[in-house]
Amino acid sequence: MVTLQVADLMRTRFEQIQGDVPLRRFIDDKLLRSDQVCWPVLEADRPVGLISIESIRAKVSEDASRLSVADAMDELGDAVRPDLRGRDALKFLLASKRDPIPVVEAGYVVGLLHHADLMRWLALHQLENQLRI
Predict the structure, then answer these.
(1) With contact defined as beta carbons under 8 Å apart, do 39 and 15 qualify?
(2) What 8-state DSSP symbol labels residue 31?
(3) Which residues on adjacent β-strands are paired with residue 38?
(4) Of 67, 19, 14, nearest to 41 (Cα)?
(5) Is 65 helix (H, G, I), strand (E, B) or coil?
(6) Mean pLDDT by groups of 10 residues along the chain of 133 residues
(7) What is residue 21's DSSP assignment?
(8) Which of 34, 20, 35, 33 has its CA nearest to residue 69?
(9) How far apart are CA 48 and CA 62, in angstroms?
(10) CATH numeric code, 6-132
């Protein structure tokens, strides 16, 4: 775990969405048609937030047809770097209420780190260690 870094665990295949996209279009075209659970929200190609079904539920109490993605997103908040050590990433994830965590480098989201991905890695390596004995 000492040599493991966030870059080894993060998901790098994900879509991002511009904040000015109508929320209804996002829901119909992305949220309902993808297994992705969270999208980085961009403004002028820079990340400004994250949108998920949870953020939509928490923030949208009116007709979604009049809102944009930016209206329903959560602020970007805490992020991690791809070179963060695995042990530090584990501590960060355990303390965080956010899932996934954006991985940011040079001002761009380069990955998403999910709690489940780190737990799966830990379980596989624990099993691997047991089989060596």
Answers:
(1) yes
(2) G
(3) 52
(4) 19
(5) helix
(6) 79 97 95 95 95 90 85 93 89 87 96 88 67 56
(7) S
(8) 20
(9) 23
(10) 3.10.580.10
C-alpha to C-alpha distance for 36 and 12, rounded to whole angstroms? 12
Q: What does 67-84 look like in DSSP terms, one character per residue?
A: -BHHHHPEE----B-TTS
77: left (phi over 0), alpha (psi -120 to 50) or beta: left
Point out which residues pair with 10 in neighbouring strands.
Answer: none
CB atoms within 10 A of CB 80: 21
Chain-centroid distance of CA 65 in Å reads 25
Q: Give me the residue spans of the domains in the chain.
A: 6-132
Residue 95 tokens read as 């303390």
- The structure tokens listed for 110 are 């380069």
CA distance 120 to 103: 18
- Structure tokens belonging to residue 49: 């937030």
